[in-house]
């Protein structure tokens, strides 16, 4: 008959599809196609002329079959994205759809993919990108969770206390830190299921073998499953706590040294190469800025900087800080989005400012948002008012600017799962920026 | 619908809608289909099933919120099937038990894969969000609980496995493939199953087995054989792990063998009569020693045990060697024995102990210990070098010379009293140079360079000065003969070596009376030399010179006699007399009596060299003896070398003298060290000075604390130091 052995015929919802076993193999073993053609089920040999019936919608099958053939996703405008996801889940190839939707992250090729409007009142606190393209958004005492399809999941709260920070441990788990409620033991920090919103456990702070209530601030995670948080307790429990992500047990505590402010730190960043934690306490939480590296092994602070004693002008006031391990430096930003740099290899250095954007002065909006920094694979990002700047190269040249006027200033942004999420302060809206898949030729 | 809505129900108007009702039997029906399929799968009857239909049914159950029913149904059905399987396995007879278990395990695995395929959608959605165990893991857990932990299988399985291993240990052939499959199954069920249900017991049984076996072995084997057996057992266990156990078990089982077969019997093995470590060392049993090293290395304290026994044996034999009265008679033999001993142990450490640094250190410290037990070691080592450089190196290649010299240097490094060596070396070198006996200038210089690198420039500067003197003297003689050639005519040839005072080990010697022709010549040279070098003083060291004499004996035998200057003076007397008494000779020559005795002894008492005769004939020289020319002297050589009877080794008083000179020389060195240290430290207490001085000088000699104390006191007297007025133990440097 001249029919190739490789050929497979499907009847999907009454429509005939001819394809090849090679194409279906692209779906992988853990898919309906992988299982169907496994030798256990004895379907591929001898029956190559018979058709395999599948009781599903043929239109979406066609889209997904094309995805398996080309690796690219094309959904005609009259078809529903949500329904496509459901079909892909049935066939077990939802991961294929996700990786076809957007390409590997590049700050200079970002395109606004969508904006999502929520219903939460008041200003946004934080937005955190998840590892697989989802995100969570903290507003007041609530955290809203979105998966990569931007379907909203049940929201999370920690005793309805004000949320200070949130973060992803894995695609299934979110940690949120919150203020304490005096005398009740509410608040603190908890771990939640991203899909159901259930609380799995709370993280406790113990001081002299007694469990204390505390306010948890900034969060950071290390690849060896440690969780760090700045803690402000009732009496002595000021400092940085360390917990095991897997067991939820407290494993260490770095008590605040006199004259230094750890318990109220705004930003923590685990530096794996140095085995140290960057801790930054910044204006306006404190009158002065403190940035230090903590070494938990011997409870020392091998590097530190503060602007105590220096003449304070707005141009010199640090608003955010981020450590860049590759160049052994710390990048800081002032409220005019000027970048400054410090060398981590030299103790007690001063900030080397690059006053790039002095021209911007005087154009402040009514409700300004102060800059935030992020680093992703050698690209530095800085948000300022309603735009995000991208800097590249050794000298951090400005290479791109992402701007969207709707929603007011950007109060926080986060990069992860090959996406950039930007949360606006005025309307409850956040933007998703993605890198499109590369051109066909 | 949530609870808050229900409370307000009264106030709500029901919306006009039909509740979508799923056929109440729907879930049961669907589950029946799936349950049937699972049964068919377990019965090897799956070919009639439609995968698509089963997949869709499972999907629908999850979609319509019957995930829980599906999941619990799966657990129930699978449990039933596994219980069936367990019964069949239990019923298997004898040897077929493991095979049946393996077959059923394979069946279950295949079925589990197919079930998982059908339930893929549940595995992907329902299970993670409800925190249930995934299907594959669930299948393994149920197998573990219903089959492996079934009361009739658990102990039988363990006993069977252990029995098979025991059989293999006693030399029987077992089905290793089957073993591997069963062990692999236990590992697949999780490391805790493998450890609890097998490994723990396996290690216990192995420990018992090896405890008993090692007891048998040690009663009937010698040390070498025992070690061979232990090594073989160890390798067998390592092989067993690689063939059918978890690779993580390797260290555990080898620990058991090591503990039972080696650690428990370590001392007994090392000290075993006639075959223990000492015997192996004596007999150079490299293979056995290597085996012992490699096995003992595996257990705590193993290597130190070997090392300690080796060290004490080495110290014992070394001590015997350096105190052996026989050996002391021949210094060359003495040093050669040391070198042989060193070579022997170097080879053992190289071949058997894999050049272990700690063993090399033990070897070095042992040598250092016993070489210094004998105060004459420095002298002997210098004598050994002397012997080698005089004649021992003839016909030896340059590289071999280097090797010998390097070995000597190694012994030198062990010496604590390096300055004593230096003293002797200087004496011996002087003799070699003056008598022209050194065979190889290169070898001499090479050794000087080695000493220099070892001990620094100061150590060898005088030795190098000696070489310079030799060279300058040659030039001086050429100049002398060029200037006086005409004047000298056929008078005897004079060769003068001008030695710088201080560089050479000169003794203040009483000059003897030279024969008239010689003293005239010497005077000429003196005036020539002082004429060319003003401001110098020249004194004659007649005790160190040599002379060649032409002699004609009674029957006209002509010989050339090579003699010392003293001997020359004596013999020249017989040109004008036939018979002379000891007293007459002594008067005429004024040679110091001890030297004269030796000189006469060598001329009259040595067989074959006796150019003189004496009366009475005896071995010793007496003051009343008389001497006359031996007319009957014969020799088959024309040239006859008459050696002086010099004890190669020093005589007792000489030894004392050398010792005393060494002690004298040390004083300024100790003082210099004290001053250097105090200059930099300003204030220091007594113990620390002693410690630092000792440390600074140890490359040359081991300073005696008592002597250091005396030097400190002497320095205090001379106002270099003072005692602190409040703390008497503190010394202060006075600039």
UniProtKB/TrEMBL annotation, chain A:
<dbReference type="InterPro" id="IPR057441">
    <property type="entry name" value="Beta_prop_At2g24240"/>
</dbReference>
<protein>
    <submittedName>
        <fullName>BTB/POZ domain-containing protein At2g24240-like</fullName>
    </submittedName>
</protein>
<dbReference type="Pfam" id="PF02214">
    <property type="entry name" value="BTB_2"/>
</dbReference>
<dbReference type="InterPro" id="IPR011333">
    <property type="entry name" value="SKP1/BTB/POZ_sf"/>
</dbReference>
<dbReference type="InterPro" id="IPR003131">
    <property type="entry name" value="T1-type_BTB"/>
</dbReference>
<feature type="domain" description="BTB">
    <location>
        <begin position="6"/>
        <end position="77"/>
    </location>
</feature>
<dbReference type="GO" id="GO:0051260">
    <property type="term" value="P:protein homooligomerization"/>
</dbReference>
<dbReference type="Pfam" id="PF25279">
    <property type="entry name" value="Beta_prop_At2g24240"/>
</dbReference>
<comment type="pathway">
    <text>Protein modification; protein ubiquitination.</text>
</comment>
<dbReference type="InterPro" id="IPR000210">
    <property type="entry name" value="BTB/POZ_dom"/>
</dbReference>
TrEMBL record, chain B:
<feature type="domain" description="Cullin family profile">
    <location>
        <begin position="376"/>
        <end position="604"/>
    </location>
</feature>
<dbReference type="InterPro" id="IPR016159">
    <property type="entry name" value="Cullin_repeat-like_dom_sf"/>
</dbReference>
<dbReference type="InterPro" id="IPR036317">
    <property type="entry name" value="Cullin_homology_sf"/>
</dbReference>
<dbReference type="GO" id="GO:0006511">
    <property type="term" value="P:ubiquitin-dependent protein catabolic process"/>
</dbReference>
<comment type="similarity">
    <text>Belongs to the cullin family.</text>
</comment>
<keyword id="KW-0832">Ubl conjugation</keyword>
<keyword id="KW-0833">Ubl conjugation pathway</keyword>
<dbReference type="InterPro" id="IPR016158">
    <property type="entry name" value="Cullin_homology"/>
</dbReference>
<dbReference type="InterPro" id="IPR045093">
    <property type="entry name" value="Cullin"/>
</dbReference>
<dbReference type="Pfam" id="PF00888">
    <property type="entry name" value="Cullin"/>
</dbReference>
<dbReference type="InterPro" id="IPR036388">
    <property type="entry name" value="WH-like_DNA-bd_sf"/>
</dbReference>
<protein>
    <submittedName>
        <fullName>Cullin-3A isoform X1</fullName>
    </submittedName>
</protein>
<dbReference type="InterPro" id="IPR019559">
    <property type="entry name" value="Cullin_neddylation_domain"/>
</dbReference>
<dbReference type="GO" id="GO:0031625">
    <property type="term" value="F:ubiquitin protein ligase binding"/>
</dbReference>
<dbReference type="InterPro" id="IPR001373">
    <property type="entry name" value="Cullin_N"/>
</dbReference>
<dbReference type="Pfam" id="PF10557">
    <property type="entry name" value="Cullin_Nedd8"/>
</dbReference>
<dbReference type="InterPro" id="IPR059120">
    <property type="entry name" value="Cullin-like_AB"/>
</dbReference>
<keyword id="KW-1017">Isopeptide bond</keyword>
<dbReference type="InterPro" id="IPR036390">
    <property type="entry name" value="WH_DNA-bd_sf"/>
</dbReference>
<dbReference type="Pfam" id="PF26557">
    <property type="entry name" value="Cullin_AB"/>
</dbReference>
């Amino acid at each position: 008959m001249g029919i190739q052995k490789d050929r497979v015929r499907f009847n999907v919802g009454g429509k005939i599809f001819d394809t090849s076993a090679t194409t279906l193999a692209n779906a992988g073993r853990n898919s309906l196609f992988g299982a169907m053609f496994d030798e256990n089920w004895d379907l591929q040999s001898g029956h190559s002329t018979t058709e395999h019936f599948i009781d599903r919608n043929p239109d979406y099958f066609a889209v997904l079959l094309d995805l398996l053939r080309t690796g690219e996703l094309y959904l005609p405008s009259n078809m529903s994205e949500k329904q496509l996801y459901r079909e892909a889940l049935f066939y077990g190839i939802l991961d294929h759809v996700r990786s076809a939707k957007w390409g590997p992250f590049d700050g200079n090729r970002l395109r606004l993919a969508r904006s999502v409007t929520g219903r939460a009142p008041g200003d946004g606190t934080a937005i955190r990108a998840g590892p697989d393209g989802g995100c969570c958004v903290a507003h007041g005492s609530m955290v809203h969770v979105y998966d990569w399809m931007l379907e909203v999941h049940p929201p999370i709260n920690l005793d309805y206390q004000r949320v200070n920070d949130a973060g992803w441990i894995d695609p299934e788990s979110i940690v949120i830190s919150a203020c304490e409620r005096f005398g009740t033991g509410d608040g603190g920090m908890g771990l939640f299921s991203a899909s159901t919103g259930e609380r799995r456990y709370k993280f406790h702070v113990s001081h002299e073998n007694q469990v204390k209530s505390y306010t948890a601030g900034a969060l950071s995670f290390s690849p060896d499953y440690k969780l760090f948080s700045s803690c402000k307790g009732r009496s002595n429990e000021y400092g940085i706590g360390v917990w095991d992500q897997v067991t939820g047990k407290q494993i260490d505590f770095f008590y605040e040294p006199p004259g230094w402010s750890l318990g109220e730190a705004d930003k923590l960043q685990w530096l794996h190469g140095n085995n140290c934690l960057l801790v930054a306490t910044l204006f306006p939480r404190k009158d002065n800025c403190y940035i230090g590296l903590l070494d938990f092994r011997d409870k020392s602070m091998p590097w530190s900087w503060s602007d105590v004693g220096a003449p304070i002008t707005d141009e010199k006031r640090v608003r955010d800080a981020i450590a860049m391990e590759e160049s052994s430096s710390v990048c800081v930003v002032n409220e005019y989005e000027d970048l400054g740099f410090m060398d981590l290899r030299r103790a007690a250095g001063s900030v080397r400012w690059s006053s790039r954007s002095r021209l911007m002065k005087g154009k402040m909006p009514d409700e300004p948002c102060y800059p935030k920094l992020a680093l992703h694979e050698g690209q530095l990002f800085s948000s300022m008012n309603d735009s995000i700047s991208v800097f590249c190269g050794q000298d951090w040249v400005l290479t791109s600017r992402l701007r969207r006027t709707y929603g007011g200033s950007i109060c926080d942004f986060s990069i992860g799962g090959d996406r950039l999420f930007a949360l606006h302060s005025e309307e409850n809206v956040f933007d998703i920026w993605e890198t499109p898949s590369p051109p066909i030729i | 619908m949530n609870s808050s809505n229900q409370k307000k129900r009264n106030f709500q108007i029901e919306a006009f809608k039909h509740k979508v009702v799923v056929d109440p039997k729907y879930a049961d029906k669907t589950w029946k289909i799936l349950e049937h399929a699972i049964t068919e799968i377990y019965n090897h009857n799956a070919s009639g099933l439609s995968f698509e239909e089963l997949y869709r049914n499972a999907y629908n159950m999850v979609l319509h919120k019957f995930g829980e029913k599906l999941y619990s149904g799966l657990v129930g059905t699978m449990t039933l099937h596994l219980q069936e399987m367990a019964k069949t396995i239990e019923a298997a007879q004898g040897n077929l038990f493991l095979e049946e278990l393996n077959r059923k395990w394979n069946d279950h695995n295949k079925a589990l894969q197919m079930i998982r395929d059908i339930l893929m959608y549940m595995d992907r959605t329902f299970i993670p969000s409800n925190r249930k165990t995934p299907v594959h893991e669930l299948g393994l857990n149920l197998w573990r609980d219903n089959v492996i932990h079934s009361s009739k299988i658990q102990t039988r399985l363990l006993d069977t496995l252990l029995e098979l291993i025991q059989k293999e240990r006693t030399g029987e052939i077992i089905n290793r493939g089957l073993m591997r499959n069963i062990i692999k199954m236990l590992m697949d069920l999780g490391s805790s199953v493998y450890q609890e249900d097998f490994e723990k017991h396996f290690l216990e049984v192995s420990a018992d087995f090896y405890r008993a076996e090692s007891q048998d072995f040690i009663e009937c084997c010698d040390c070498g054989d025992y070690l061979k057996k232990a090594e073989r057992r160890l390798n067998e266990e390592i092989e067993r792990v690689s063939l059918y156990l978890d690779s993580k078990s390797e260290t555990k089982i080898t620990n058991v063998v090591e503990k039972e077969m080696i650690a428990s019997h370590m001392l007994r093995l090392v000290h075993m009569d006639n075959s223990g470590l000492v015997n192996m060392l004596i007999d150079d049993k490299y293979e056995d020693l290597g085996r012992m090293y490699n096995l003992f290395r595996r257990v705590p304290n193993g290597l130190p045990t070997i090392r300690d026994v080796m060290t004490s044996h080495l110290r014992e034999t070394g001590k015997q060697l350096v105190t052996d009265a026989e050996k002391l008679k021949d210094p060359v033999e003495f040093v050669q024995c040391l070198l042989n001993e060193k070579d022997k142990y170097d080879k053992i450490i190289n071949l058997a102990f894999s050049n272990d640094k700690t063993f090399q250190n033990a070897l070095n410290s042992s040598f250092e210990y016993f070489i210094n037990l004998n105060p004459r070691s420095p002298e002997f080592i210098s004598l050994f070098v002397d012997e080698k450089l005089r004649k021992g190196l003839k016909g030896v290649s340059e590289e071999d010379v280097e090797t010998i010299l390097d070995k000597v240097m190694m012994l030198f490094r062990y010496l604590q009293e390096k300055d004593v060596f230096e003293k002797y070396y200087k004496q011996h070198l002087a003799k070699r140079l003056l008598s022209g006996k050194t065979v190889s200038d290169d070898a001499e210089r090479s050794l000087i360079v080695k000493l220099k690198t070892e001990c620094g420039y100061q150590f060898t500067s005088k030795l190098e000065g000696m070489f310079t003197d030799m060279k300058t003297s040659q030039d001086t003689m050429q100049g002398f003969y060029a200037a006086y050639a005409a004047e000298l005519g056929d008078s005897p040839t004079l060769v003068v070596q001008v030695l710088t005072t201080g560089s050479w080990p000169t003794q203040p010697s009483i000059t003897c009376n030279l024969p008239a022709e010689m003293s005239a010549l010497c005077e000429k040279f003196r005036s020539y030399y002082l004429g060319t070098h003003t401001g110098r003083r020249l004194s004659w060291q007649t005790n160190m010179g040599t002379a060649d004499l032409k002699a004609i004996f009674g029957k006209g035998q002509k010989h050339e006699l090579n003699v010392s200057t003293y001997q020359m003076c004596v013999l020249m007397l017989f040109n004008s007399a036939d018979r002379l008494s000891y007293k007459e000779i002594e008067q005429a020559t004024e040679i110091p009596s001890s030297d004269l005795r030796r000189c006469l002894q060598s001329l009259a008492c040595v067989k074959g060299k006796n150019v003189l005769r004496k009366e009475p004939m005896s071995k010793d020289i007496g003051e009343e003896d008389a001497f006359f020319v031996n007319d009957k002297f014969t020799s088959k050589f024309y040239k006859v070398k008459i050696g002086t009877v010099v004890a190669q080794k020093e005589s007792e008083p000489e030894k004392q003298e050398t010792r005393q000179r060494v002690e004298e020389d040390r004083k300024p060195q100790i003082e210099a060290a004290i001053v250097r240290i105090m200059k930099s430290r300003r204030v220091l207490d007594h113990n620390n000075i002693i410690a630092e001085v000792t440390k600074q000088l140890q490359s040359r000699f081991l300073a005696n604390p008592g002597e250091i104390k005396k030097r400190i006191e002497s320095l205090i007297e001379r106002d270099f130091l003072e005692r602190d007025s409040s703390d008497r133990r503190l010394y202060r440097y006075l600039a």
